[in-house]
């Protein structure tokens, strides 16, 4: 009798420890990365690190500006491509498509989300890079190898399709049919209803999905690394090569212990990613949680 | 009420998310009788019932003050042993919720967690309880089958057998027949009448005829307050309070 | 009036085109991987380890990476479950009623889920440096475990929340302790646990950024936790850059194997999720 109660107490304490340990991972990761970035931070200030374009690890010069710009370029391109396509798809699936069509199509969106990043990378090398090199770039520039921020953005766009479509779809499903019916009953077409009623109602959800997609694109590593060209130069056009932050970390881990401060600089890059993505995630989750609660209450 | 009360509620107040659900409830539940709690939906009947075995503890933002004495022991005392309290009371909820295991294991679940019975003892106990709920002849050949394979009515009787197997003193029923067909309802009602020989029974119901059929006493709850409490015939046929009169006549629902 | 009708038609066509593009991209990817990988798929590919060095050797297959992937994803899923089942149970059974705390905890796991795998890889590397470990199977398992914990907790949490409160009340009413009640709930959600395992395994087997620093790479099948291990994504990533055609072929074949494995896992988990939601009471 007493034994089971003691067992329950012990197990509850153990579970508490497990929960605290895994939750505090957020803090431990941040502190750990910060601690390992200290050598490079002692060497130069945050401002210098973020704004300098000089990347000469052998001389101890670490300017992250080109990498930050590389990340911003590919992320921006991917969102610009993916967002309109995904919104149109979500509206089609939730407002126009027949239930049967929906039941066939949505599983493929889920399947797409299951494909590992490295496969997207291989596909990028085999399909997107030649596409950019042979069919897109020749219309705009004299020569491109195809390895470019555009290729990175395109691959990333496809990677974030399922994320945006599934969240926006879920948000659209929560909008009461009565609301849409009210608009339709006034003689509005379906599109007018979407434009004037549905979008307005779904806006917070769309924003949250976009912010999540941005943070996903921001942190994606391997697929981007394989198609971006990886030159530490600030890109000026979509056909220039770029070198996003995650790719920098992944590409140089091999030598990071052999050059002084290099490991610290790479950990600083990881810290930057961590902070930015943490912020984006917290914002979008707060929006989504609030949406969920409004619905429940 | 000649015998000592089995459950004695003293100045019980329950707030859930800043709503005052139960207002200053004081009541004595008689021993070895069937007591029905009636009242319109949302009046706090189920909350009152759940306060008897501290199932309210799992409700978000709940605040409970006052005392509930079971056999003279305050169950809301911080030192009270909660599993011991709950063992004293079997609960039969609105819909049957068989545990995800076999018919046999459902009945044996309670005895197993509370002790270390031998196989032969368990076999006998399972048989006794399944017989007590009239289920034995229907299931004796498939005791190892999952409980979810039974019909809803059979599942509800299994849940009753499961509750009886831990040897409770009190049975709490929360609209226990509302999901059942008429035949199963009849069987369960008869069981309640039979079981009051050995147990104190508290039922929540919104069917007045059922309350009349099975109960000895009736508590009428309205807007979180006890309006009237007394023997069944008195409350239903000769209510003292205006509100009770209106409810019994069907003006409030 | 005509203008409104035209606008409606135009936007509808646009929507259909967008949908075709979004859904079609899946077939484009799978088609590309199949057409490139199939010619290199031989029996040797899945039964032999690479011969003559992974970057230049023309012989053999990618058995080392297949086994390594199973070890890493399997090990991480098992250790992830050991941590996440108690966490999910704790949030749902022990903290029930404490809405603010559970909201905060759930948000933290959502946020952890969003942290990119390269950060988990970098952090895993820090742990290894701290404990003086070298790139090894163990290092890979640690990094991937960290990566899958948020996924597992979120999935299990969602599954446990589908269990009706009345079932929990029923077990509690029989005098069960919270832990005994939790065991009943765990029985009830067995298919859900299996779904979580599949999702975690799928994530673990496909991820490369987390194992890049931590697992190392080897042409051999690891025989202990302290030996370096290859995984399929690593095999793809490294061998794709080789100038030797046969080695590149191994990368394509690995990509095909990985794609098939992941697709099977995704389909299975989709079916399970559907089944599971049907059995909800």
Automatic annotation (TrEMBL), chain B:
One of its GO terms (biological process) is phosphate ion transmembrane transport. Keywords: ATP-binding, Nucleotide-binding, Phosphate transport, Transport. SUPFAM superfamilies: P-loop containing nucleoside triphosphate hydrolases. The keyword Cytoplasm does not apply. GO terms for cellular component: membrane. Residues 7-248 form the ABC transporter domain. CDD domains: ABC_PstB_phosphate_transporter (cd03260). PROSITE patterns: ABC_TRANSPORTER_2. Pfam families: ABC_tran. This is Phosphate transport system ATP-binding protein. It comes from Mucilaginibacter mallensis. The lineage of its organism: Bacteria, Pseudomonadati, Bacteroidota, Sphingobacteriia, Sphingobacteriales.
């Amino acid at each position: 009798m007493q034994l089971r109660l003691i067992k329950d107490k012990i197990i509850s304490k153990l579970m508490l420890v497990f929960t605290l340990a895994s939750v505090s991972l957020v803090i431990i990761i941040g502190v750990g990365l910060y601690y390992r970035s200290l050598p490079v931070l002692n060497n130069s200030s945050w401002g210098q690190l973020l704004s300098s374009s000089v990347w000469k690890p052998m001389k101890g010069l670490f300017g992250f500006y080109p990498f930050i710009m590389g990340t911003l370029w590919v992320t921006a391109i991917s969102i610009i491509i993916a967002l309109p396509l995904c919104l149109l798809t979500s509206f089609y699936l939730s407002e126009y498509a027949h239930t049967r069509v929906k039941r066939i199509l949505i599983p493929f969106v889920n399947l797409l989300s299951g494909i590992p990043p490295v496969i997207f990378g291989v596909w990028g090398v085999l399909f997107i890079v030649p596409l950019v090199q042979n069919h897109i770039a020749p219309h705009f520039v004299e020569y491109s190898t195809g390895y470019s921020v555009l290729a990175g953005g395109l691959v990333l766009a496809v990677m974030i399709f399922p994320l945006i479509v599934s969240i926006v779809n879920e948000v659209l499903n929560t909008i009461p049919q009565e609301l849409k019916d009210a608009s339709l009953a006034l003689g509005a077409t379906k599109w007018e209803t979407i434009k004037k009623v549905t979008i307005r109602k779904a806006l917070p959800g769309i924003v949250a999905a976009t912010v999540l997609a941005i943070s996903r694109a921001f942190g994606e590593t391997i697929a981007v690394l394989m198609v971006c060209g990886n030159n530490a130069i600030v890109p000026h056009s979509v056909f220039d090569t770029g070198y996003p932050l995650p790719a920098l970390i992944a590409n140089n881990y091999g030598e990071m212990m052999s050059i002084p401060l290099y490991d610290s600089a790479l950990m600083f890059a990881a810290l930057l990613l961590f902070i930015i993505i943490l912020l984006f995630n917290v914002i979008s989750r707060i929006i989504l949680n609030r949406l969920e609660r409004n619905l429940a209450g | 009420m000649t015998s000592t009360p089995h459950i004695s509620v003293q100045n019980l107040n329950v707030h859930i998310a800043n709503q005052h659900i139960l207002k200053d409830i004081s009541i004595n539940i008689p021993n070895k009788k069937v007591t029905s709690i009636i009242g319109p939906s949302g009046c706090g009947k189920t909350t009152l019932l759940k306060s008897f075995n501290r199932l309210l503890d799992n409700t978000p933002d709940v605040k409970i003050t006052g005392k509930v004495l079971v056999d003279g022991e305050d169950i809301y005392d911080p030192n009270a042993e909660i599993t011991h309290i709950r063992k004293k009371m079997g609960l039969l909820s609105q819909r049957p919720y068989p545990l995800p295991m076999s018919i046999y294991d459902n009945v044996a679940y309670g005895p197993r967690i509370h002790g270390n019975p031998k196989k032969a003892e368990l076999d006998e106990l399972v048989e006794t309880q399944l017989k007590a709920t009239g289920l034995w002849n229907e299931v004796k050949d498939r005791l190892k089958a999952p409980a979810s394979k039974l019909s809803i009515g059979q599942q509800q009787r299994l849940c009753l057998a499961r509750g009886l197997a831990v040897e409770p003193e009190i049975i709490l029923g929360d609209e226990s027949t509302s999901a059942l067909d008429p035949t199963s309802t009849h069987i369960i009602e008869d069981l309640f009448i039979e079981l009051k020989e050995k147990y104190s029974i508290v039922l929540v119901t919104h069917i007045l005829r059922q309350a009349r059929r099975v109960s000895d006493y009736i508590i009428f709850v309205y807007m979180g307050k006890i309006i009237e409490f007394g023997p069944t015939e008195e409350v239903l046929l000769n209510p003292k309070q205006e509100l009770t009169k209106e409810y019994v006549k069907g003006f409030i629902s | 009036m005509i203008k409104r009708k035209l606008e409606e038609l135009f936007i509808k066509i646009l929507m259909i085109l967008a949908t075709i593009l979004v859904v079609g991209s899946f077939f484009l990817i799978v088609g590309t991987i199949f057409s490139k990988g199939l010619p290199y798929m031989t029996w040797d590919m899945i039964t032999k380890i690479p011969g003559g060095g992974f970057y230049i050797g023309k012989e053999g297959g990618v058995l080392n990476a297949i086994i390594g992937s199973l070890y890493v994803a399997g090990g991480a899923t098992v250790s992830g479950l050991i941590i996440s089942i108690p966490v999910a149970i704790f949030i749902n059974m022990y903290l029930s009623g404490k809405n603010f705390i559970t909201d905060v905890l759930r948000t933290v796991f959502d946020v952890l889920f969003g942290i990119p795998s390269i950060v988990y890889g970098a952090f895993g590397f820090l742990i290894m440096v701290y404990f003086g470990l070298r790139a090894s199977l163990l290092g890979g398992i640690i990094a991937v475990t960290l990566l899958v914990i948020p996924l597992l907790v979120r999935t299990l949490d969602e599954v446990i929340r589908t269990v009706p409160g009345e079932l929990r009340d029923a077990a509690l009413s029989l005098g069960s302790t919270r832990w005994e009640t939790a065991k009943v709930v765990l029985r009830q959600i067995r298919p859900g646990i299996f779904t979580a395992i599949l999702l975690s395994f799928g994530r673990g087997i496909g991820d490369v950024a987390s194992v890049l620093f931590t697992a190392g790479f080897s042409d051999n099948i690891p025989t202990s936790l302290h030996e370096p291990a290859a995984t399929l994504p690593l095999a793809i990533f490294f061998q794709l850059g080789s100038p030797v055609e046969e080695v590149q072929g191994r990368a394509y074949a690995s990509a095909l194997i990985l794609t098939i494995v992941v697709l099977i896992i995704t389909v299975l988990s989709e079916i399970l999720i559907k089944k599971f939601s049907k059995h909800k009471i």
